Amino acid sequence: MRDGINLAQLGIPAVALVTEEFWPQGDFVAQSLGMPGVPRVKLPHPVAGTGAVNMREVADAIAPLVIRALEATDD
Amino acid sequence: MTDLLSAADEAEALEDLHSRGCTDGLPVVIPTRERVARMVLASGQDGDMVLGTMGPGHGIATIENVAVAAVMAGCLPDYMPVVVAAVKAVIDPMFDLTEMQATTHCTAPLVIVNGPARHTCGPIASGTGALGPGHRANASIGRALRLTMINIGKARPGSSDMALLGHPGKFTYCLAEDEENSPFPPLHVDLGFEADDSVVTVLGAEAPHSVLFAGDGDDPDAYKVLLDLLAMGLANAPSNNAILTGGAATVVLNPEHSGVFQKAGLSRQDIARELYERCFLEPEMVKHLMSAFAGDNPSRRMAFTGPEQILILQAGGSGLYSMVMPSWCAGTHTNAAVSVKVEADMFCEIPGLAASAGQTS
Fold this sequence. Notes:
Helix content of chain B: 25-40%
Number of domains of chain B: 2
Strand order of the largest sheet of chain A: 1-2
Structural class of chain B: alpha+beta
Shape of chain A: globular
Oligomer: heterodimer
Largest sheet of chain A: 2 strands, parallel
Strand content of chain A: 5-15%
Radius of gyration of chain B: 21 Å
């Protein structure tokens, strides 16, 4: 979340990838850093350690959402 | 100025503080305006003095809101200089407080006190059971730091403090070094301070791991066994130190174990170097145990970047057990230990203050 916000503050389009488990923390970080609307895409939890096949499936599923979020930052 | 809340009585105030998430889950002393004012007065500093910001909530720590935490934790005003120094230590950018508070690791700030403040701001226990219950200064100073991390830093479990389980040291984790009975110079002197300085050293730490060593007075090399055992505890394979390399960690030697090293002619620096050299995993173990962190051709993985990352002090009672505390190792500064001088000469001693600090005003 912080990386995404730091990049956004530098004017670089960024989307934070946050798992379901960490979504509330994402809310907290976004609020505390004054960017409640920072682009985020929700991932299932966990992702780490779930194997290459699953990670590829997750990546395929979220790719359109990431692109859509990035396109929205251009508006 | 700290926000003021109101309640019909102290019982209602306590429930209100619990419901707001302002406590550590245990009852607190209600921080009435009078109690906080006395704690601020005892600090000898202005309540509005800003110490810095505390992550992850970026709250501003002032003498006054640190005093609020100290009152809630049950501190005597005598303890305030140590509490303030501990807060300054975790605010130091080297400490990576924001990341530490938010991590899924169990890490908690371990507060080590050296110098005259062990007596003048306490007594802060360094002997038998120093990390256990029954020592008011140890219990309440560490707790006060935690309450600043909750109420100023805004660390709340599940939303900003993401520790998967945590450990009991997250309630309080404070001890003094047993300088009087240690064969080594005080820790703060070896860290570059003067012997008559009072210093608080804070670093992130796992819960203490017990290290059993019975010794063998007939074996001149018995100290090497003790070194091996301490190293096994410090760099046990599932710990972050063994996997990530490079977080400052702590060794607490009991009097007998300090004596074993003294008898072998080892200084604190010698012990740290010997431990550093023993704390590693061979490449095949790195690959077997931690494939996610190993890379294609892992080399021997050291647990520390250098001997200076291993803090060694003497504390605890006489017997068979020392303690090691591996650490978190993450954050920009990889779990640095931060030492801050205690500004005890600014302390304002008020006759009768200590006795009335915990009473209803």
